[in-house]
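Objective 1.3, modelling of assemblies. Example input:
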Amino acid sequence: MASLHDIPDDGSRAGRPVAPRSINYKRRGEIFRWLHRGVIFAGSLAIMLVVLMPVAWLVSSSLQTEAEIVSVPPHWIPDEPTLRNFKAIFAADEGPVSYETRNRQDPASGSFIPSTAKNLLPAMFNSFAVATLVVVLNLLVGLPAAYAMAKIRFWGRTGSVYFILATRVIPDIALVVPFFLVIRNLGLLDSILSLVVTYLAITVPFTVFILIQYFESLPDELDKAARVDGCSRLQTLTHVYLPLSLPSIVAVILFAFLTSWNEFLLALMFTQTVSSQTLPIVLASFTSDFTISFSFINAAGLLAIVPPVIIAIVFERYIVSGLTAGAVKG
Amino acid sequence: MSNTAGGIGAKVMRRFTYDDRTALVFIAPVMAVLALVAVFPIGYSFYISLFQIKLTRPNRTPFVWLDNYIQLFGDDLFWTAVLRTVTFTVMSVTAITVLALLAALLLNEKFPGRRLVSTILLVPWAIPYVADALMWKWIYDSGYGALNGLLYQLGFIDKYVVWLGDQQKTLPLIANAFVWKEVPLATILLLVSLKSIPQDLYNAARVDGAPLLQRFLHVTLPSMRTGFMLVILYETMIAIRHFDLFFVLTEGGPGTASHVLSWEIYIETFRNLSFGSGAAMSYVLALVTFALAYFVIKILGRSV
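Predicted structure (tokens):
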């Protein structure tokens, strides 16, 4: 290495006409470029493997029969892939599971698909309903507020922005006890309404913050022009800014939806039966039951993973720009 | 000058411009919602923490001033839980920051397939924590899990090992599942920071003859200071209150090896049904979060 430093840097780099002495640089550049490519390839491969291998194992496990899933060492790729777990989830209830019938699905072993498998679809529906309501409410209260804080110079503007920032960091676990007591007194336990209301606390501050950032990046002249043309503030928002801020609105929809879809702690406290349980709750109830086949648990897990992963892949651009805006302004 | 209430009201209204009033109407819904679901519960939580509320004795809820806090601070179990939370947090946040820096440096380069890698990296961010937990629980499984299978087939172990059930290994393994899911977000935050470094700085360093490592140490890292601060503070806030993984992976076990603060709060509140002391504990956690958040807000506030 020391010899490389001995060569005085004469400012010549790749692409420039160089003196004969600089052939060294050319070779160094070549070596460096290959090294660079190698590091990038290795890094990319490492990321892909670390991310995809656990997920691939989940998918593979969900397709295995009971005999395969308990093999030692594990079958990385199932010999006889089966859809029995997914059939149990999606097919209509096939009668009560009793001691006599519980092994019927896979006579080769003592596999157990729980009778609660039929709760997965209603739970998915609950998750979807809660998430959708949370998204709609977020947009309804978030859009006007963000517009006002970004574009109207009003008394108390800075104060309200800091207020939003402060509410964004309230830990959910500190809300659990007071929420529980209030919701119990209101008789809203075991209702998806209690989830919709409490999820607002963890989504609205982020929504407003992202929208403020986006509105601020749009020129003030639009605002002035619309106002001169006789638009009211509300019309300026709906006719001028809304169409322009679609990317950030998409990001907000995605974040509010995914946060609600994934939330666990509050749902654990406020839901009790199938009528309000969301997908993470039903999933977690499987994992603590040792009689349930792991291949079934993996199939249920796959069900919970597929919608958010599809969303993340399809809307990658919006998500990254939203997270970026929500964190730091470049 | 009119002294009637209406007159004063009108005068006050005139001091507010049309813009002031519109803005008030626009922000009123958000303020109302947040007052109801965020500010009120936080205040109410402190109020509850001053009482001895046991749901097993619903009719006797004496006001006990700060007794819940005093008892808490004198309780060895509480401090052990704090220590475990700190251990988990330090392990996780260190790993997250280092790995995210590496991933961000990679994604800052231009190469074919960059989009694919960054999209794939977003997958852990998107999936629910409960699914993350059940996936790793199955990987760590001592009887049939993939980790044992892989290490066995590669010859690193000659018989299957107990993973989550081993008190020494529990916290690092839970931290691993946590890091897996948190690195993507941290990477995006650091990437923003990396991209905002002015190219001039690199050019200047190059003209000065600074080699790659020097440029990294003296240009890249110092310029990312804000980004690092943000990632470390933000991830610390998430880690000290994390609950989901502990619930699914170990339920605080084996023994009390993963009794972190959030698990302690859950047990105290919903198994012991002692709401007063549970609220006190969660309030302590909230205060720590707020202290961290103060710095985050100062960083974020700069961009408003």
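Residues 23-62 of chain A form the longest helix (40 residues).
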